[in-house]
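Weekly structure sync - notes
Attendees: PM, LS, DV (DV joined late)
Agenda: review two folding runs queued last week.

Item 1: First target. Sequence and structure tokens pasted below for the record.
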Amino acid sequence: MFVPFVVLVAVAVVASLLFAGFNFVKVKKLSAGNAEMQEVAGAIKEGAEAFISHEYKVIAIAAAVVAVVLGVLLDVWSGISFVMGVLMSGLAGFIGMKIATIANVRVSNTARETGKLGSTLKVAFKGGSVMGLCVGGFALLGLLLCYLIFGKGVGLVNVENLVVKPNGFVRLEYIPFTMVISSYALGCSMVALFNRIGGGIYTKAADMGADLVGKAEEHIPEDDARNPATIADNVGDNVGDVAGLGSDLLESYVGSIIAAIVLAAYTYFTSLNSQGALTPALLDRLMLFPMALAGLGILACIIGIAYVLLKKPSEHPHRELNMALWSSAALIVGGGALLSWGFFRDVNLPATLGFKAGFMSPWIGAIIGIVSGILIGLLAEYYTSADYKPTKNLMKVSPEGTALTITKGLALGMRSCFLPVLVLGAAVVGAASVAGIYGVTMAAVGMLSFVAATVSVDTYGPIADNAGGISEMSKLDPEVRKITDKLDSVGNTTAAIGKGFAIGSGALAALSLLISFIHSQVGSDGTGAKVILDMIKPLTIAGAFIGGALPFFFSGLLTDAVAKSAQYMVKEVRRQFREQPGILTGEVRPDYKQCIKISAAGALKEMKFPVLIALAVPLAGGFIFGADFVGGILIGATITAIMLAIFTANAGGAWDNAKKGIEQGALEGIGKGSPAHDAAIVGDTVGDPLKDTVGPSLDILIKIMATVSLIGVSIFGNYNLASLIGL
């Protein structure tokens, strides 16, 4: 199995990165428009690159410390693989941000020159595809290198030579490869958390400052060049919605694959000396299958993306983007069946371990994940799109004032939690019924198997949004802005779908890691009958209470961070309008750089503590109270974080699209500058930090905590204060 697997994954990695490079060059060769357009785009590009440079310096320092700690406490290979994860995720985020700042002005210019929606869509999607292909390519490249270097090169994956020591825990020396790849996942998670938190604080502080003063108080258009915060707002789209989103889904992608690999290894140990035990050869296949399916998924996404880019331009952007997603998913469904047949047709997948559908069991688990991911995305669209009843009803209450707009949006977000969680629950039960616990992890892999297409569609959104801003600030023909606004409107919907995918896949990946954590203890005889987590143990219950409160505390920190930065931004915009009246008449140019500095300083200052919480809480809890306490934390945090993430993402998305609906004339006789529009702007402003900072960060929080716990349990499972004092 080794050679075909390496060839499949290697071909997928090379093809995705080459295709990304090709699209990068093609977009860059397009005309960037007139001098004024290039000046505006240059300011956005300069601000984005300055922020990402400062942020990556902070990440580099933190990563160096964590790598040394892993190298000392675990093994040098774990430290090296952690650094690889940081590099892969960092590269994907940087390249995605780079192409977004290049594509935005070219999208605007294509709309100016052609006046055609379809041609403009293709440029925006081509730019977005660079990010999507880099996310899949770099994530899988790192996993392949881990396998080749540490699995086959160093030989850490040779399960036939593993022994279980009397201390009862599967420690580094017993399953070294799983610890190495878990460290790789930790590296990806760390970059994702920094990018999501830092980028989210940056973009929402600027967005709130621009909206509250420019739109609500002075009633100037969105992205008007007279607004001092408008450049910072557009910079934020690139560092938050592009670099942040890409590293977020890359981390979910890697986490789901690694959860399947780790769980396969622990299943091997828990099945020893029992009926239907896994053989080392079968374990090797179960560990490799998720990576092979991911490779197949990238190849399917390349075909789906290429089809949309090569076909005749269409005037229906939503249909075009959906075609890239659904065609990729369909190819994975068909190809996955052949892959599962090739991997498992000549071996026995024991029904006693949950494999009820023979060699097709892993594939069916993945299909359940794909279907559930699509359903969650459609539910996100239903609750946030202005085309459907929930957001339409939200728009209708805006004429009644701000209070009802906020209240209705909160109710919408709360109601929207139930159906996605119902889908997740059904997916867990369904996948487990056909492939056991391993099937649950494969559902997460399946949900993210077309991540390259998902990220491509998601990244298209902020590129189109930036193009609209450049069109407005460059004073292009209003017809140009109409085209970019249509693309941006679709981008809001695709962003909501992307958040649904991220939350759903994050939940399944976190659950998979939690299951791996629970099964990370084996009996001294190797039978694996013993597992962590006694649900009626006081330490577990206490951990669950604390874990349940943690996402709320974390969310409060992020919301407060945005509010602090936005407060400085509002004061600065008001100061400039007050001291330079010529700004509003167009006679004086605003000081854009000062607003960029405020957003950057606030983000860099406020992002450190939330990241520290995610890394430190499971370790501190483990070394003080032990593994049961940490298991309780993970259960409590996972449940509440999923609910909060769905609630914040959907409420914020609905407020945003309700505002845009009013601006586009969805309510007869009510438009921009009306009291209803002002109420909708306030609703959108309240929702901004929820949907773009809090929600996207919560799924990373639970995954990084689960990964840290899985790595740390090999130490604190035996050495903790609670066991020493007899708790």
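Item 2: Second target, run right after the first with the same settings.
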Amino acid sequence: MNNVTAVASEASTRVLRTCSLADDASSLRYVTGKRRAALDRLGLKRVRDVLLHLPHRYLDFSNVTYIGYAEVGSDVTVVGTVDKIKLKRPRPRMQIVEVSVVDQTGVLVATFFQQPWIADQLKQGDVVALSGKVTFSYGFRQMKAPFHEVVAQGEGSGSYSRILPVHPVSEGLSASWMRRIVACAIADAGDVCDPLPSLLVAQRELMTLSRALREVHFPTSLEAAEKARRRLAYDELLTLQLALLTRQRLELKGVRPFRHVVDGPTTEALVQALPFALTDEQEAAVGEILGDMASGHVMNRLLLGDVGTGKTAVAMVALAAVADTRTQAAVMAPTSVLARQYAEKLGPVLDAVGIRWALVTGATPSEERASIAADVADGTMTVVFGTTALLSDDMEFAKLSLVVIDEQHRFGVNQRLALRQKGAAADLLTMTATPIPRTLALSLYGDISCSRITKRPRPGAGITTKVIPPESVDLAYGAIRDAVAEGRQAYVICPLVDERDDGKDLDDVPERSLSKAKRLHAATSTLAELERSPLAGMRLALLTGRMSAEQKDAVMDAYRRREVDVLVATTVVEVGVDVPNATAMLVFDADRFGLATLHQLRGRVGRGEIPGTVYLCCAAKRNSPARERLSALEATSDGFELAELDLKLRREGEVLGYRQHGGISLSICDLDSDADLVKYAHGDARSMVEGDPDLTDEMHVSLAIECRERFGAYFEEVERA
């Protein structure tokens, strides 16, 4: 009986500790005043946030290098005793602290710039760990701005055969204080209930949660630390997948799906009316989409296809199925330029098979818009192309059964929901020409079935990509002049709209991959410079996202009619712009764009019978990370291969320009190294939901709570709607 009481007591204690994860971080010891404010700046509001604030590196004192044996040019960790501390002021407003550290084999001088407080923090006799790159000058081994940590104060020896975690910190909170606070969180709340079913933990060969929390923060070995991180990464991925599936169920709650007619006369006629035969990949994608539409379940499918792979032809077959079902479809594009282009390319084919269609953008005249709205409301208009103008209250569909959204990552969750709510049972087909790595698609689109098209029906004339330094920009200008002289057209792409921009909206490119250009090119000022020289006498025009829909349409119309020779633009032309006569492109400050953005941009040229040439101008030196990153574009035209490389470089948060809306962020998982976990979590979540849709089984209740804690904001919008 005593054993039973002990087990019950231990279980109740563990439950209480699990509940304490929701407590404010200020409930932890030492979290007061400035330290509380520092935790707030790091986004660590609750005890659970502190426990999941993982170290970004470890100092392995079991692998310390003696100073005398540290190789010049290598990154090492040394441990020694502080011998001398000097604060130097070589010139006004320049302060340098030099710390001489000794061990039994030699002396190393650590140099810290503009950090005078280090002279007060360190004392002669302190034992410190230094980690950084070893250089050699003035007869001594040196480290510039190394990571440093006091491991023993005063004349002490101590044992260093342990691993010291280094957590991300903020002003007012040192690494040592963060370690102390985390240690308190582990002691007070680390022994928690494991939300994962024990069978799943065993099947996936995972650590228990309590052990993983201890090992990830204070590991017994680096191998144990990595195993612990993978357990926590799996939790993050699994709860995300469950949250996505829960959101999908909420969206479709009480909805009676359409069962589309997919073998009707209009569908057959449209396939025959296409000016080309569908490829095997296109046929497969059509089969998957039509299968979903006929299934009696609401379709939620993402069509992935690189530049020029013919996604629109696939989507057109789905529009024909809507006509055969005598319902309606809405096609929403992120820009009026792209919406209009869709209407111009697809409209004639739809006309040929008797499908009524219309285009609605912000530039549509009020009388024309009112007429279209009336036809949409009474059901006589089958297909409507448009921008976010389709979301307005005056657009009420009689029987919306299919929603097609292009480049859907450019729309927020609320915008997608608003269009779905105009037809609650409508099938959803989203498309993107931005290549997405498989792991990213599985993780961030876990509630969506994916179809892929990798090969172009018509390869086109091809594109040559060249990376050039600013001093060689005349090569690009010469190519543009030659193209225009032969009756062709060109693009010049700039990262900024005007000189006042701060560049905050640019792609999240790794800092180490950026050149140190003094200024970034702005489209407005670049246009003025090009008009003076070196493209004087040519017909130049400006296109940016800040222009009105009417202005953008007018510029693009002029460009298509060949009334403009060179279009100076921002990334507004990245998606969907199709001008086969354009054969040359110059991209300024190319290192400021992600690889996938650059891949999309270069897809604007070489779309006709004449090959295209793209010049990527970058100020970075040869063999620098920035130049190596851009060299990948010279080496391959495979968008999916580039997407995988982009993922390695930038992790998931802003990868490929996919600025996710709705509170999704993966802070623990590394989609590159954790690809197997992504696959497992995706399958495990679907299996759970198939057997227990509401996660009410006693084995899944804790997981349901964990989903709410981590990703609740993602589907709260759906509940409020």
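Discussion on item 2: Residues 222-251 form the longest helix (30 residues).
Action: LS to circulate a short write-up before next sync.
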